[in-house]
Amino acid sequence: MLRTVTATRYVTPLREGGSLPAIVEANDAGLYVVKFRGAGQGAKALIAELLAGEIARVLGLRVPELVFVELDVSLGRNEPDSEIRELLKSSAGLNLALDYLPRSVTFDPLAVPVPEAQVASAIVAFDAFVTNVDRTPKNPNLLVWHRNLWLIDHGAAMYFHHSWDGWEERSQTRFAPIKDHVLLPWAHGLAEAGDLLQSRVTREVVERIVGSIPEAWLGQEPAFASTAEHRAAYVTWLMRRLEAAPAFIEEATRAHAQLV
């Protein structure tokens, strides 16, 4: 179960992309990178971040601790930037954050030792599973901290939920965008990574993680009659996605073979 902290001080914006995340201090004296519910893609980006991040953790991949952040409307009252002030106002309530990793650096394969095949393969398989289109050389969303790779920014994963039309069929995609994955050249163990995925991501695990989605983030989809139905659809999609593992691992293996 994720911890819940309360934001006490807005420290500084991180103006990468369109979501305007920010470093925020909380009542436990910790610093967090907060993803705001009031930003561009709203709660859907937070749901993707939550589901993908916790699944990655189950797979043994390094993800900064995720926490829920309670944001009071008064936090941005004295913020001079009107865009940030409006963002904080529209994000009052429960948001999501990652533990801030001080002095971490963005992964650059030309500047640091290349990742081990096992780690690279596990990350490629994971990203194919959650259909994460945002782990490319241009925007790797990987940090190097204490000489280890840490996964961040999964808001673009599970993009199917931005339009629920045909969502069950779309769970079976082979995920061709995997060919652009930044770690694909070092993913020499994709078959083993696929086996790990299927052994660790059980229905019990999926139901537990999906069950942690806050009720307030659900219920805005006309395709579903209730938040319970909406939540159940995420479980169904993830389980059907797992059934497609042979196909998307085969696609990743084919793309890898074209690079080596």
Shape: globular
| Rg calculated over all Cα atoms | 18 Å
Please write the string of helix (H) and strand (E) elements.
EEEHEHEEHEEHHHHH
Oligomeric status:
single chain
Overall tally of structural domains: 2
What is the β-strand count? 8
* Chain-averaged pLDDT: 94
Output the strand order for the largest sheet.
Answer: 1-2-3-5-4
Head-to-tail CA distance between termini: 41 Å
Helix content: 25-40%
Largest sheet: 5 strands, mixed, barrel
Structural class: alpha+beta
Low-confidence stretches: none
Strand content: 15-25%
Count of DSSP H/I helices: 8
Domain HipA-like kinase: 13-243
InterPro entries: HipA_2 (IPR046748)
Protein name: HipA-like kinase domain-containing protein
